[in-house]
Design goal:
This protein is α+β, with helices and mostly antiparallel strands. The chain contains ten helices and four strands, in the order H-H-H-E-E-H-H-H-H-E-E-H-H-H.
Length: 448
């Protein structure tokens, strides 16, 4: 009698139906929305971007008017001696003034504003990079859970098939058509499958905890890929196009360019140390003498007050500062060279990473096709070995080996598909083109 054969896809479908009955499965896009408001790394980058914008607004204050109020109260003593005679007097003074200034020409302040704006742009670039990193980390955790579920389903299907082979070996031994060796071989494979099942269950538990922690939820059930699945090809299909895009748009490259711009502006600000500054200043104030103005001879005890107002332009031109400006310029020029070297280093690293990601996706697509062919061949080999075992031309170990090969191939195929999808996201991240819109095509591949 031929042995029944259970495809792992059927076992996986049963597991998915059971999971749907116990929890509402979430798509990759839904979990991304949850992670966006929970992930600490992204929230840190968001707070940093807000702080950088606030610093840029602070730098703008150096070009805007400054207004202040001053007030004071004094108690004074005066003593006057004339021709041997002397007189003394004590009096109080109250004063208040409103003082304002408007920078007319301050090149260093203008450069500081430009630096603040570039720093705010760099922080926004860093935020975009953090968002791309979150997408990749979420996809990694998501596919890790799916891969662990596929592995568990495959191990359980293998365990069930080995158990059927074990029962058949026992029956054949009881009727005397096989030796005890077949039973012991099947028992050994069954015990090994049981151990693999325990390890795989624990691995799935750990992967789910990692996904739960990333999105801030408990009991997350990711939706699996629908079968059959067709993986999209790379667009564009030339590595040079990806590298060119990466060297222009990658967040790391853009941040390094912003750092170089800031370094160049710092050099300009250092050179501005030799330039003059011009400010418009104005003030209006009043001084009160409750006990009388001592400088007035008439009615010295009568309360008096004086109002003063002024407006003018103040020029400040530094002539010599002990070579501080010259040495500062030398320092900033060296820091500018460092920023240029850092930019070159980032561009080279990004180019290499983009090439590696591109060829990784290409290799993954080839592996998927090869594993699909291997799956069909392994299934045919297993069926042939099962039939040969029944007619006596194959032994029990041949069937067990064919079973292991089939289920291993199916596990590798599932993982290869996940690696291709994840590799596509990493390639777009390397090129600086990754966004949440890239999750939509993957969502469309999931089970509705």
């Amino acid at each position: 009698m031929p042995l029944p054969f259970r495809r792992p896809q059927a076992c996986l479908a049963m597991l998915l139906l059971w999971g749907a009955a116990t929890a509402q499965a979430q798509s990759l896009r839904q979990l991304y929305e949850a992670a966006l408001g929970y992930d600490a790394t992204y929230q840190s980058a968001l707070a940093s971007a807000r702080a950088s914008q606030a610093r840029a607004d602070q730098a703008r204050a150096g070009l805007l008017p400054q207004v202040g109020m001053q007030a004071g109260a004094q108690h004074n003593w005066s003593e006057t001696s004339v021709l041997g005679g002397s007189s003394s007097r004590a009096f109080n003074t109250l004063n208040a003034a409103l003082v304002g200034s408007q920078p007319l020409y301050r090149p260093a302040n203008r450069i500081a504003l430009n630096q603040g704006q570039r720093a705010a742009e760099a922080a926004q670039i860093n935020l975009a990079g953090a968002e791309q990193d979150l997408i990749v980390r979420l996809a990694q955790a998501y596919f890790d859970v799916l891969a662990a579920q596929d592995t568990l389903a495959s191990v359980r299907a293998l365990k069930a098939a080995v158990n059927e082979q074990l029962q058949a070996a026992r029956r054949n031994f009881e009727v005397g058509t096989t030796t005890i060796t077949d039973t012991r071989e099947a028992q050994a494979r069954f015990d090994l499958a049981t151990a693999q099942e325990i390890a795989t269950e624990n691995d799935l538990r750990v992967k789910k905890l990692a996904l739960d922690q990333l999105v801030g939820r408990s009991g997350v059930e990711p939706r699996p890929l629908a079968q059959p699945i067709t993986l999209p090809p790379l667009q564009p299909g030339e590595v040079a196009a990806w590298v060119e895009q990466a060297t222009e748009q990658h967040p790391g490259v853009r941040q390094a360019r912003a750092a170089l711009d800031i370094a160049r502006l710092e050099t300009d600000k250092a050179r501005a140390g030799h330039r003059p500054t011009l400010d418009l200043q104005a003030s209006v104030g009043q001084t009160r003498y409750p006990d009388g103005n001592p400088s007035l001879s008439a009615a010295p005890r009568a309360s008096a007050r004086t109002t003063n107002a002024s407006v003018g332009v103040v020029l400040n031109w530094p002539l010599f500062a002990g070579f501080a400006v010259e040495n500062r310029i030398r320092e900033t020029l060296s820091l500018e060279d460092k920023a240029q070297a850092d930019l070159d280093n980032v561009q080279r690293a990004v180019s290499q990473a983009t090439r590696a990601a591109f060829f990784g996706v290409q290799s993954g697509l080839g592996q998927v096709k090869a594993l699909q062919a291997a799956e069909a061949s392994s299934l045919t080999a297993l069926q042939a070995n099962q039939l040969g075992y029944q007619v006596g031309v194959r032994i029990n170990i041949d069937v067990l080996n064919a079973q292991s090969q089939l289920y291993q191939t199916q596990r590798d195929l599932a993982r290869a598909r996940y690696e291709v999808l994840l590799g596509g996201l990493r390639l777009k991240q390397a090129a600086g083109a990754l966004s949440d819109a890239d999750l939509t095509p993957i969502n469309q591949m999931l089970v509705p």
